[in-house]
Amino acid sequence: MKTINLGPFTTTTRPSNGDFEFALRNSQATASFNWHYKDSKFPYTSDHGTGTAVVSDFTLVVHCSVERGETGAPFAYARDTMININHMDITLSGGKHAWLYQMLIAACKGQVVRHVQDDLDKAVNGLVQRVVNSKLTHWAPFFPMSEGVFFDERLDTASPMSWGSNYMTFHLNGGMAPSASPVPMSAKAMPDLLNEKSIQLFFTNDVFQTYFDSYRQKGSFNVKIPHTKAPKKFATFFMTKTYHGLVPWLATSYPNKFIDLEVTVSKAVTTHVSPAALAVTVPINMKISVEGKQVAELELTSMLAVYPVIESAEQRVAASVKFYSDDVKVIGSEGPIDPAKIKNPLKIFYNGGVVPWSTAWTHSHGMILPPVGGIKYTNPDVRYDEKDEYVFIGTDFLA
Q1: With contact defined as beta carbons under 8 Å apart, do 264 and 224 qualify?
Q2: I need a labelling partner for 202 at 20 to 30 A (CA). Which of 46, 364, 380, 387 fits?
């Protein structure tokens, strides 16, 4: 084969066999060959030369599978191919008897077609494998979600990835692991949803549970907020006099003083898939100090509504966040604190501080999506399934 130009293609799948199918139409190819002719009867004419077969239209169907190798890296291989040549022109040259050419072409065209099909079969197998594998070169054996947290993305029929009807499906599950080679895990069974998206991403509740809690264990959510670094719009909330009517003893015992906060999340962050959002419950310990002296300690159980989104440029899952509700418990205090009276200041603190910070944090620490070389996810469609506890994101992609 001299050249092969693969034309536009569509993809269908055979989920039962665990492979997928490329159907290419309007493809083109050029082949060169040697020919020779010898008449077995008088006048015992013989001739030889070279020839060119130009295939201006052929249909190619390739069944391809994707698996993990011994190193964990994914690779694709062609299982079988089917080729149908729709139109081919043959040109012969180099011989002494030009008048033989048309007769030879008519007599030998079928044989040339069979040889060209065989050569196409061999050449296209390798070509398709190279094209598919070039898209998988950035696909690491395991994707670190954060330090100490990894996903196993084995690409076989029992893995979190499968092929549906004209789309790829990734079933992502979360689990703590001490290294980049955890014990392989299988994602829970997920349905194939009818949609017009090319790629389906199923995130089990455990993915988000592991995601948030792994960062919590690293101390990513712990922060000290001295009054000197409080945003200007919250400056009054860091003054004792502000609480004259809410927490009287704080204003009278520490008149015209400034408040410092220390926020820690020492208990597990929990997640739950609700019908319209991902509910994230964050147990917050808040220590309140005045002039370096701790005067109160609160336990806040805040519930945030998290809405996953896809950052197309970064190829990862981020989120927008809204405050939903909270529960306040006084752990210790120099004087009485009525939780009901400080609900409004805390709500302002959540909406003006926690929510913007959390949204920005998810965009800078987004979950990395399975990287397929040259492909960008776009136009996401997000759905929630409370019963089976997963978040579904269907996307198109740009190559």
Answers
A1: no
A2: 364
Burial class (CB in 10 A: 0-12, 13-18, 19+), 284: buried
Question: Dihedral through CA 57, CA 58, CA 64, CA 70, nearest 10?
Answer: -80
List Cβ neighbours of 33 (8 Å cut-off, separation of 6 or more). 50, 51, 52, 53, 112, 115
- Distances from the Cα of 345 to the Cα of 181, 227, 348, 350, angstroms: 46, 16, 5, 9
Owner of token pair 């620490």: 365
Q: Measure the N-to-C terminal CA separation of the chain; round to a whole number of Å.
A: 28
Q: If we measure between CA atoms, which residue out of 310, 306, 308, 278 comes closest to residue 396?
A: 310
- Residues 286-295 as b/e (b if ≥16 CB within 10 A, e otherwise) read bbbbbeeeeb
What's the confidence (pLDDT) of residue 274? 94
Residue reference for tokens 């492979």:
19
Please determine, for residue 186, whether its predicted confidence score (pLDDT) is greater than 60.
no
d(CA 1, CA 4) in angstroms, rounded, equals 7
Q: Is the C-alpha dihedral spanning 246, 252, 258, 264 positive or negative?
A: negative
Judge contact between 236 and 349, C-beta under 8 A. Answer: no
Question: Is 0.70 surpassed by the pTM of this model?
Answer: no
Quote the strand ranges of the chain, DSSP E: 3-5, 9-14, 19-38, 46-68, 74-93, 142-146, 149-152, 161-163, 168-172, 199-204, 223-225, 259-264, 270-273, 278-290, 293-311, 316-333, 367-368, 376-385, 390-398
Q: Which sign does the torsion angle of CA 23, 27, 33, 39 carry?
A: positive
Give the domains, in start order, of the chain with CATH numbers.
Answer: 3-135 (3.15.10.10), 191-398 (3.15.20.10)
Contact 8, 127 (CB under 8 A): no
Buried b (16+ CB within 10 A) or exposed e, 109-148: eeebeeebbebbbeebbebbbeebbebbeebebbbebbee
pLDDT of residue 151: 45
Q: What is the pLDDT of residues 45-63, one digit of tens each?
A: 777 888 888 888 887 777 7
